[in-house]
Specification:
single chain; globular; 4-stranded antiparallel β-sheet
């Protein structure tokens, strides 16, 4: 059974940094795209950062470009999200995702595998 398990969330002040980790347990056949979505209270889930498991091309939401970096360690079946210069508007539940489809920040429904989420809270 496939499970995605996130860690690394927490509470920080604006300007601070956090690194999220996501470990994939089980075998994800033909996984093509991995990454992160987030959901703030009362809002829809939004794509934050995605990358292809082979080739490593990355994609970022405009709101996080230059501040967040996605990376992976295939040997550890782990995906990371380094978040720097955090802002209060980054406050959300962050979800690790995986899909056999193309990377598309705008299509949460393409992602068949989701973690349970890790909360990130940024105070001003």
């Amino acid at each position: 059974q496939v499970r995605l398990v996130e860690s690394g969330g927490g509470s920080v002040q604006a300007g601070g940094s956090l690194r999220l980790s996501c470990v994939a347990f089980g075998v994800i056949d033909s996984t093509n795209c991995v990454g992160w979505f987030r959901q703030a209270p009362g809002k829809e889930r939004d794509g934050v950062a995605l990358m292809y498991t082979f080739g490593g091309d990355t994609y970022y939401a405009d709101s996080v470009k230059g501040r967040f970096t996605i990376s992976q360690d295939n040997a550890k079946a782990t995906v990371y999200l380094q978040m720097n210069s955090l802002k209060p508007e980054d406050t959300a539940m962050y979800y690790c995702v995986a899909s056999s489809s193309l990377c598309n920040l705008g299509t949460a429904t393409d992602f068949g595998f989701w973690g349970q989420g890790t909360q990130v809270t940024v105070s001003s």
